[in-house]
Fold this protein.
Amino acid sequence: MSTTTAYPDIDESPFTNPFVHEEVRTYGIEEDHIPETLEDVSVQFIHPQGIVRDYLNKQFRLAEEKLNCPALVIGKDVWMSLTPMEIQSAWVPLQLAKGIVYTTGLGMGYFALRAASKPDVDKVIVVEQNPAVIRNFMAMHGKNPLVDKFEIYLGDGVEIAAKTKADVYFIDPYQTLLPSEVPEHIEYFRTHHPHFQGEAGRQHLDTAPIYRFWGQELVYASALYGTDIRLPDELKVDPEEAQITATSAYSIMTDADRAFLQHWMDDDEKNTMFDPCPDFEYIQQTVDMLTRITPFNPSVFR
Ligand SMILES: C[S@@+](CC[C@H](N)C(=O)[O-])C[C@H]1O[C@@H](n2cnc3c(N)ncnc32)[C@H](O)[C@@H]1O
């Protein structure tokens, strides 16, 4: 049931069926071994077939091979699952995970377990607000030796992030992609985390901890998409503003972000189906917030 297979490195594309199948297998929960429903939290299996949504595309063809994806259901809502888009959307933060990793919320524990599987991750601090989610996770994975690297706390993970020292943060309390709270959460982190306090603040961006939220790659891809002015006319994005946002986004992207987009672009058929976030103001605001907490990399423009 447990696994010691370390998370794949940057050369491995998450946009392939074998990658997705291997991640589901590594998670190690079989359909006939799921824990009983605890309060309103349960794990259920979904079996996507045919056309399945991919992280950066509205849809993408999945091979005929059957995929059994465990999913975390709270009440009647699916909060997390091991479908291709969920697995792909954890790839960049997992590439960046090192040292002390902070994540919120626990969900199915996929990100936390895969972060802990990396030899250069020493500790994974997990903050979850729902005690039944924690009990459900422990019923499934409590005996996994990777959990020895965990410190799990009950509470508001957005608030606690700003008070907790870590090297890499993965903020994922979200049920839907790019909800309106994302810029507020980044701003909360900046205005409360000790690293950004005092006059030095922005001057110390080069040593700032890494902040990632679920959906960040979509923000970058949407910002870059604007540069070619391929956004639909009705969005009426000022080309100059689009260029400024794209340049800012590109300058704060990590090598892992670039590798991720490169893996995706290697497949022409998939990348032409990209659907940028239609709310350009949201993209602009989020990129702007991120530039205040993220090191700028001038070398990418040479
Ligand atoms: C999308 S799931 C996280 C999935 C997780 N990244 C994984 O890999 O399985 C979101 C989780 O965040 C929790 N949550 C929502 N708001 C929260 C908050 N403010 N603080 C802590 N946990 C929160 C939910 O109960 C849920 O378990």
Observations:
- The two ends are 48 Å apart (CA to CA).
